[in-house]
Amino acid sequence: MIKKHINSVTPGMVLGKPIYGENYEILLKKGVELTQGYIERLKARGYACIYIEDKDTEDIVINDPISDKIRLMATKDILKTYKVTQASISDIEADTSESVMRSINTPKVKRTFQESQAFKQLVTDIDSFLDEIMGQDILSGLNSIKTVDNYTFEHSIDAAIISLIIAKKLYLDKKKLKQIAIGEFLHDIGKIFIDINLLNKPGKLTPEEFDKIKQHTSFGYELLKDIDAIGYVSAHIPYQHHERQDGKGYPRGLLGNNKIDKGEITYVEHDKMIMGAEIAAVADFYDACISDRPYRKGMTPDVVYDLIRNGAGTQFNKELVNCFLSVMPKYPVGSEVKVTQGMYKDFTGVVAFIDVSHMTRPRVKLLNDDKKNKIKPIEIDLSREASYEIQCI
To answer: Does 277 reside within a domain?
Structure first.
């Protein structure tokens, strides 16, 4: 299987993973032969990448860290929780951040959120989500297919997966993992209080517009802060996931100490980030950057990998970055890549296998020559061939 950008998909290709609609009904089943009509409709719906099965890549297994069943369950839980909460604010008129804060803290909004069956189901279903994550030690990649309509929900799931794999590596207990998961599922819920047209603006934001969007962190915290059932950390992940180690983040300019907090996910000092949020900051950044957004194309995984590595110590907790780099490959399985140095320079292919002891040096299957002509597949193992370098395309 191979992950291909929708612009490089052609009629006759076979779909490798099912495509779901806005309400997570199946639009196209796995194994469907794609027609030009299907491709155009997928483009119109905002699908940037899809998975393709073919003879040359049939031996490449792209393992999702969670099953389709659990992913659908969790994504629907988030979707329903957002919708219920949005319905409770539909008749509220608030044009300043102060008036939004007052509205969030009204009994109607608080009660609607906390007592909704959707939110209660989300908290209950977290256990099934965690049970599947507990069997994972590394990520071969993230396999969700995002559109403008489902971005918030799929992004919340993928950010939770990354966070939990990091947290599991730190040997945090299940209670702490559950708080992190709930916090990640709802880390962007404050955005429901911000104009959707501003969130999806295709052009560059003005400083005033960006200030409005930054308020989603405080809005999310205000909504979650009094819910004893989910805990302190779950509320502070939405609040702090855009803070930085050097104090240049928002909304409060908190500091980090670039250390792993020895099995804890909170700090005593009130001017420092909690570790649960430091984990979330890395996870949120990675998945947001590799995803297509209305205002920019997604970056390739290898570029984002390097941004996080280079941001260690200033933007991200240095010790947590080291942990992230030990569980996330630079070139995910199924990614299209090009050889940039070595005998097969400018040949293209797909990442076929990740060796956990060589996370940045995968095995690659080359499928096209430097003139883009299809060739008999050639396998190269970068862990044994030091002369080769690749990049995602």
So the answer is: yes
